[in-house]
Amino acid sequence: MKFIVPIILIAGLFIPAKADTTDILYAAELNSVPVGCRSTAMGNTGIALPFEAVSMFWNPAAASFVHSYDVSAEYAQLYGGLSSQACAAFRAPLQDGVSVGLIYEPFFSGDISRWDTLQGTYLDRQMDPTLRANGSSDGVFTNNQNILSLSLAKLFELPVPRPTSYSYPLPVELSVGVSFKGFWETMNPDGKLRMGINVNCDAGVVLRVGLDYDMSRQAVSREIYAAFSLRDALETQISWLHSPDEYQEQVDQLQYYGISYVDKTGLLAAQWTVAFSLEKSYQITYHAGIEALFWDMLAFRAGMSENVPTIGAGIRYKRYYLDYAFSFDDIASSPLRVSLGCWF
After folding, report:
1. Which of 87, 118, 259, 294 is in the most buried spot, having the most CB atoms within 10 Å?
2. Which whole number is the average pLDDT over 322-332?
3. Rounded distance, CA 309 to CA 42, Å?
4. 301 three-class SS
5. Can you tell me the distance from the alpha carbon of 258 to that of 260, in angstroms, rounded to the nearest whole number?
6. Using 50, 70 and 90 to split pLDDT, how confident is the model at 1?
7. Residues 6+ apart with CB under 8 A from 206
8. pTM of the model
9. Which residues, other chains included, contact 63 with Cβ-Cβ below 8 Å and sequence gap of 6+?
10. Rounded average pLDDT over 66-88
């Protein structure tokens, strides 16, 4: 969901306050805050990485790329500890190529300072520190948000004509998915509880193309994933309960495009994944990342999310995986994002 102010504004880049709606004009873009250690460490390229349960946050079609039950839990401290975020994800195959997934994502703002009217827009204040708040605030409030999303996806195997002498099983698969989600947000300015609610849906597709086959391992050794998702496809609004002027906040659409290349041939003794994506929201931002997986156990990752460097690492052992990510955000670094998951 797209809201008026991105989460980065919690550091002090607040929008103008109005006397009768101050209690409901501070909102974070929870649906734009990255989720997933692997994708975050790779520059927030999750749209093109449908390999874990949390990938459904980026694209509901990612629910199809699972052959067993997949569950994960994640915690992150954002922007130097100014706020925190968690995520629990689960996905499972059903039958006939249909899969289902569930994601719950809570966000906790911590104490947010409340200021008088500021000049310019939030983008102006992000670029020009002289326009930001200074001096004493009028008090603090909290802004806690939650998203609950149910994803359904269907995987189609596309027939590709090949010469009779060419029998390598190189897949061409298309996954189509949709998610239905509910959002609720609470704030407590001046000790008065305000609550915003919204329902919406996401839609997405992922195309997988096998490029090469390893005869000794009996598996595809090179493949490409191309993906697209439309976040908040419905033109709905956040409705605020207990608001004196029945204020409503528009939910804007968000688009993701991405492509990734996976090389399992053992180049330089590693399995490589390279991903690129772009996000279209207020503006178009570009993202890129790379992962090297050694011995099918130890992974190192790095990326660029627009102009923000990201790094991370991961460990896999049998059915379990543990991942860590660090983001060098502009306002303050996000030093801790850790997730634990398993397949069973």
Report:
1. 87
2. 89
3. 9
4. strand
5. 7
6. very low
7. 50, 59, 61, 62, 64, 65, 174, 175, 177, 225, 226, 227
8. 0.82
9. 56, 91, 99, 100, 101, 151, 152, 153, 175, 177
10. 90
Q: What is the pLDDT of residues 115-150, one digit of tens each?
A: 656 666 656 766 777 776 665 666 777 888 999 999
DSSP string, 33-85: S---HHHHHTTS-GGG---SGGGGGT-GGGGGS-SS-EEEEEEEEETTTTEEE
CA nearest to 302, candidates 270, 279, 278, 326: 326
- Are 103 and 72 in contact by the 8 Å Cβ rule? The answer is no
Q: Residue 191 — left, alpha, or beta (φ > 0 → left; ψ -120 to 50 → alpha)? A: left
Those residues with Cβ within 8 angstroms of residue 276's Cβ, 6 or more apart along the chain or in another chain = 45, 48, 258, 259, 260, 286, 287, 288
Contact indicator for 78, 106 with CB cutoff of 8 Å = no
Pair of tokens at residue 189: 């300015």
> How many domains does one find in the chain?
1
Residue 62 located in a structural domain = yes
DSSP tag of 124: H
- Give a yes or no: residue 251 inside a domain: yes
Beta-carbon contacts of 268 under 8 Å, excluding residues fewer than 6 positions away, are 292
The residue segments making up the domain with residue 231 are 37-110+142-343
When pLDDT is averaged across residues 245-265 and rounded to a whole number, the result is 85
Confidence of residue 23 (pLDDT cuts 50, 70, 90): very low
**Residue 268: how many CA atoms within 13 Å on its side-chain side?**
6
In a domain, 308, yes or no: yes
Query: Could you tell me the CATH number of the domain that includes residue 187?
Result: 2.40.160.60
> Please, are residues 314 and 297 in contact by the beta-carbon 8 Å criterion?
no
Closest residue by Cα to residue 149 from 107, 184, 108, 105: 105
State the first-to-last Cα distance of the chain, in angstroms, to the nearest integer.
Answer: 32
- Is 27 a domain residue? no
User: Which residue is listed with tokens 């030093």?
Assistant: 335
For the chain, what's the residue count? 344
Tell me the chain's radius of gyration from C-alpha atoms. 21
